[in-house]
What does this fold into?
Amino acid sequence: MENSQSLDQVLRAWAEVFMHRSMHDFWHFMKHSGLSMSQLSVLLRLHYHHACGVSEIGEHLGVTNPAASQLIDRLVNLGLLERNEDPSDRRIKNISLTPRAIALVQEGIAARQRWLQALTAALSAEEQAAIIQALTTLTEAAHSLEAQSITS
Amino acid sequence: MENSQSLDQVLRAWAEVFMHRSMHDFWHFMKHSGLSMSQLSVLLRLHYHHACGVSEIGEHLGVTNPAASQLIDRLVNLGLLERNEDPSDRRIKNISLTPRAIALVQEGIAARQRWLQALTAALSAEEQAAIIQALTTLTEAAHSLEAQSITS
DNA sequence: TAATAAAATTAAGCTAGCTTAACTAATAAG
DNA sequence: CTTATTAGTTAAGCTAGCTTAATTTTATTA
It folds into this structure.
């Protein structure tokens, strides 16, 4: 069929344009916030998962315990993280995002959201319906793939 | 309609899961390659745009000229960049990716491609057709939005 | 041709982020 | 109760990445 590209090509083209844009935006977000990749990784980890101890953050980042401790220390000083003793085990420090950090992460997510909305704003009802269907399918597939990888 | 979410919700959910995955992958790519965010930014800039001088790279990264020069110097020593005199103006050094750097960037892109393929592998023909249509529309919209922003 | 401008580099100095090694405090095990 | 283990921090030292200031080389302009 002349008006239909292969799924492979379409995925490639979409990933290319989405990633190019995402990396560009992320770079500017780093510059604008003044935070490093390591610092933003900590904030994102805490946004997507639950509050946790110092070691878990270091493990997730692939750095040593002292590195995680120092990184957290700087973020605490910046007012982006809170460090509280775990009442059940006073050796553990529970690390969590401050309201300011939550707002910062939300703003980063919202920026991407605005870009996607701009993409779809001028589309017809039919095109929008197709996108709703397609992205719902993809999102579900992503979630089930993630559920699989947890068990493996 | 009960089985149809709003476009807004769908975009939000998709951006969330896609970004979470992308950031996770990107972090591991950095760790695995041993390259910093700044270094990868240079490689991506050169992948998406043409070869250019030192100043342009610094400008794109939002750093000073000496910072760009030093960054490039390290990447040249790593065998990822080539630095050649511009024959038309010998003050300018033309910076370009080496074959090794091209392969590195391609591998990063291919990894994301494989993830998307895994997402769509188990889908029905109808679902695949809807995704082809939707992502083609989104990719075109992204390109035309980018074309607009160049002129503004 | 002499002065000026432009592109890149070098030098000096700072901070972030990482390492390993040594240390403190709290819990678990014997 | 004493010993070992676990969680986290502190200390010392290194490199990357950034800055500003000074320098070198090439091109432009008066």
Chain A has a mean pLDDT of 92. Residues 53-55, 65-66, 68-70, 73, 89-93 of chain A lie near DNA strand D (CB under 10 Å from a C1'). Chain A touches chain B through 58 residues (CB under 8 Å). The longest strand of chain A covers residues 89-97.
